[in-house]
Design brief:
The protein is of the alpha+beta class. The protein has 11 helices and 20 strands. Strand 9 and strand 10 form a beta hairpin. Helix 7 packs across helix 8.
Length: about 525
């Protein structure tokens, strides 16, 4: 019995020490002059690990060790004076950072008076040195917010010899389709990179430590979801020995579409486009690891460091106009603030923040100046009209720069305006077996929004053996959450969720409660 009490005592002693060693810090960072929230501020613990504030200046930092008198918290952001606090006595819920004004003379103490063109040339000359690397391992948190809004939904029946399918039934189907839908995917993981000579050739592996998907299963707005809704209704009205062919190029699986409907090349292109969109949706669900790995690394691959990227303001600087706007300050470093815009046909404009010492771009803000992709054929249309964001880089232990934080927003508008046919056939009727037919016009317009956020907490150099030894676990599935759960990420460093995520609750959950 004494042994039992001894083990119980040890258990509580261990539990108490574990609890004491875990500290979670929440606060908000504001501009001391304007009281405005400061997004993208860096919060570091002992300058070794840390997080980034979200778009309203909020952050949460998890410290998984016993805090000593020597431990410090560091707050820094572009254009502001840095602040330092003793971690052990830190109790503030609001941190005020003071804007730092830069005098031209301060910059000239460290650098000669370069022209803006010379600065950009220096950036390009030092790209390989500033962003080089071989084998790397990054601990990261990734969040993708996806939203869809239907602007128009209409099916007008022109003629029908199928009694069950009438305008009233069609309108009821449309009423069941939600106007808005949201989905949030969150991943904590470790990304392994074998960086070869070119960014596009980099080999990557991902270990997902924890992942979740927050959405309403009854409120999905995908090609597959629409198809399922319509097919379920069709099945309810099928007569004995009858079946239906749906011919539109949108609703209905590939096997259900009569191939004679797609006879010319234009129709084939439209069908191929729609099938490609459906394939993307399938990959998201069936190949969670592979799809998310490519999405995460795609952020870095689309950066200015890649000579194949459309964000090519450095590699193809002759296609842009540059203007030196100002000087700024970040982490005791002076930076040039340089605006860029295309001379003719390039896609983006934005602002570069360039270290005056080594000419590394430590931040880029960008925004497209025109639609990035358009498709319009036989009543199917797509317009990718928005892509904007920020990429922030920080020095790693090898004294080169790695991606620290990224936020990228995209939006597109899709449309379907084409005929819809539902043909009833019978298995035991000779000839074409056609019994009845419905003809209608379908008209849908929707906007789709995506926001991708990535924060890298730690970045270290590994060996080739480390990289080759690590094996991915391909069969990884996220945990489905019908409502926001503040306990899910407790004990982990993440990007502080915004109010929309915190308030999300699916219809399904509300009904269960």
């Amino acid at each position: 019995m004494k042994h039992l009490y001894f083990f119980i005592f040890l258990f509580f002693l261990f539990s108490a020490s574990t609890i004491m060693a875990q500290t979670e810090i929440h606060a908000r960072i504001l501009d001391s002059t304007s009281q405005a929230p400061i997004p993208f501020a860096t919060i570091s613990f002992n300058k070794t690990s840390g997080v980034i504030s979200n778009d309203v200046g909020q952050f949460q930092l998890q410290i998984n060790k016993k805090i000593s008198e020597q431990d410090s918290l560091y707050f820094s952001c572009l254009g502001y004076e840095s602040k330092q606090f003793a971690t052990k006595t830190f109790l503030d819920s609001i941190i005020y950072l003071k804007p730092k004004s830069i005098e031209l003379g301060e910059v000239m103490l460290f650098n000669k008076n370069y022209t803006v063109e010379e600065i950009i040339d220096k950036v390009e000359e030092n790209l390989d040195k500033n962003y080089s690397g071989t084998f790397e391992k990054s601990k990261l948190f990734f969040r993708q917010t996806y939203g869809s809004t239907i602007l128009r939904k209409s099916i007008k029946i022109k003629a029908s010899t199928i009694p069950e399918f009438n305008q009233e039934l069609t309108d009821s189907i449309l009423n069941d389709i939600p106007l808005k839908s949201y989905q949030y995917t969150e991943i904590l993981g470790e990304l392994y990179k074998n960086k070869l000579e070119k960014v596009e050739d980099t080999i990557i592996k991902l270990e997902i430590l924890k992942a979740s998907e927050l959405y309403d299963k009854n409120n999905e707005m995908t090609f597959e979801a629409y198809e399922k809704k319509l097919n379920n209704i069709v099945k309810k009205h099928i007569k004995r020995d009858s079946y239906f062919k749906i011919k539109s190029g949108w609703f209905g699986t590939k096997e259900d579409i009569d191939s004679s409907f797609f006879q010319d090349e234009s129709n084939k292109k439209t069908e191929a486009f729609l099938e490609a969109e459906k394939k993307k949706e399938e990959d998201k669900k069936k190949n969670f690891l592979r799809y998310r790995k490519n999405v995460i690394y795609g952020i870095e691959k689309s950066s200015f460091t890649n000579d194949k990227s459309s964000l090519n303001c450095i590699h193809k600087s002759n296609r842009y106009e540059f203007e030196l706007l100002d000087y700024s300050f970040l982490n005791d470093q002076y930076v040039y603030k340089i605006a860029f815009k295309p001379k003719r046909s390039e896609d983006y404009k934005g602002v570069l923040y360039i270290n005056t010492d080594d000419f590394a771009v430590i931040r880029i803000d960008f925004k497209n100046v025109k639609s990035l992709k358009t498709f319009k054929l036989l009543g199917v249309s797509l317009d990718v009209y928005k892509r904007q964001g920020s990429l922030i880089y920080a020095k790693n232990k090898t004294n080169t720069y790695s991606l620290k934080y990224a936020e990228i927003e995209t939006a597109n508008k899709t449309g379907i305006d084409r005929p819809l046919k539902i043909i009833e056939k019978n298995k035991h009727v000779k000839g074409r077996r056609k019994q009845n037919e419905l003809s209608a016009d379908i008209n849908f317009i929707a906007t789709n929004y995506s926001k991708r956020e990535l924060v890298v907490f730690e970045n270290e150099t590994i060996t080739e053996v480390d990289f080759n030894t690590f094996k991915e676990k391909a069969e990884v599935s996220p945990i489905y959450l019908p409502a926001y759960d503040p306990e899910f990420w407790k004990g982990y460093n993440i990007i502080e969720p915004n109010q929309a995520i915190k308030e999300f609750k699916s219809i399904e959950t509300e009904e269960e409660n």
